[in-house]
Design a protein that fits this description.
By secondary structure, the protein is α/β, with parallel strands linked by helices. The chain has nine helices and 15 strands. α7 (286-308) packs across α9 (353-375) and α8 crosses α9.
């Protein structure tokens, strides 16, 4: 008889301020299997543990002492992550795991104190060495080959795990909506034997921007579609937008959105200094320009299909900016903002099964038209 697996429950997170230190405490039901490292630009402490259940944790006080904010969530299957944003360079002076006692569960805590920039940089360097020894590269499974399939479509559900993306007025997370539409699109494409479909993620886990691009390149993708749901400070704005890559943004809003999406790795505690040059900054050569032309071609096919689905499409519905997730030099790539989570109408459409189905259908029809044009 097998025993059902369950994540370790977290009872509480607390931050205490003392004259000489800030203490960060996690109370949990099982002994923590933990790994800690430092990151800079911006300054962060990252704590990885076994997969945790955070339901019911009160996290109202997030800006305390030397900590300016913190967040948590699933980073990989079996691994949860806490990221502490720091007000200044710090060092950990104590790391303790206390066993259950006096009615308390396991308690894990670290004490942090202020330090100078050079010392913090040394801690980051040492962390990087330790990470290189322990961490294995993430390999995203791809589907087995099918001799009948011709075109490889990579479907990327934006955000995930510790990175929720935008949050709607009802509290729904962008990562939930993007995955729901991505799965519906996969189901539709699977009906056509001409397609091989690769999902960058098919559950609530995190993938760095580099990993998403790598999936597309490893699969030798013919088309990469990154699915998102925008949010903006003006709730009257609504409608779908398709973005393609450019070194220069089409407008300020496109540039700001690219900057927000490009911070996904920072949110999740990824070491940006370890990133691949192809993703960090590429030179747009002739091959890249040809890829970008195909991306624009697909964007122009997709927008009328989205409009026919019932989702509003504005006059500036095709925009471009420096999205890192679109920087595969050899895979035509688009980023689709299905709608605005900050708008009640768009949010209602994207949350509904009917709205998700219509949006997935519009994507599938555009994919059919795009490849039919290439074959003609």
């Amino acid at each position: 008889m097998s025993v059902a697996w369950s994540a370790t429950k977290v009872d509480a997170i607390r931050i205490g301020v003392h004259p000489d230190k800030t203490r960060f405490v996690v109370e949990l039901q099982q002994k923590p299997d933990h790994r800690i490292f430092y990151l800079q630009n911006p300054d962060r402490i990252v704590i990885d543990m076994q997969e945790l259940d955070w339901q019911g944790v009160n996290t109202a006080r997030r800006k305390v002492g030397l900590i300016s904010n913190y967040r948590y969530g699933l980073f990989r299957k079996g691994t949860s992550r806490l990221v502490l944003d720091l007000k200044q360079p710090v060092k950990i002076t104590k790391k303790v795991v206390l066993p259950p006692a006096a009615g308390k569960p396991y308690r894990f805590f670290i004490d942090i104190t202020s330090t100078d920039r050079n010392t913090f940089a040394e801690l980051v360097t040492e962390s990087r060495k330790q990470q290189a020894k322990k961490l294995k590269p993430v390999v995203v499974a791809t589907e087995a080959g099918n001799s009948r399939k011709k075109w490889t479509v990579v479907v990327d559900a934006g955000h995930g795990g510790i990175d929720p993306g935008a949050i709607g007025q009802s509290g729904v997370y962008e990562k939930q909506l993007t995955l729901a539409v991505a799965k519906k699109l996969r189901a539709l494409l699977h009906k056509n034997p001409s397609y091989k479909v690769i999902m960058t993620r098919d559950n609530d886990t995190f993938l760095s921007l580099r990993e998403r691009v790598s999936v597309a390149r490893r699969a030798k993708g013919d088309l990469f579609i990154s699915i998102h749901a925008d949010s903006i400070g003006r709730p009257e704005f609504r409608g779908s937008t398709v973005y393609t890559l450019s070194e220069k943004a089409s407008d300020r809003e496109a540039d700001e959105l690219a900057q927000v999406n490009n911070k996904s790795d920072v949110i999740a505690g990824v070491d940006l200094e370890e990133q691949d040059d192809t993703v960090q900054g590429i030179l747009i050569d002739l091959a890249q320009r040809e890829t970008m032309n195909f991306s624009v071609r697909f964007a122009k096919i997709l927008l009328p299909e989205i409009s026919r689905s019932g989702m509003k499409v504005g006059s500036k519905s095709h925009r471009f900016a420096g999205f890192r997730v679109l920087k595969a030099p050899d895979v035509p790539s688009v980023l689709v903002e299905l709608g605005y989570l900050s708008n009640r109408t768009d949010e209602r459409i994207m949350k509904s099964n009917e709205g998700q189905t219509k949006l997935a259908n519009s994507l599938a029809k555009a994919i059919d038209r795009y490849f039919a044009d290439l074959e003609s």
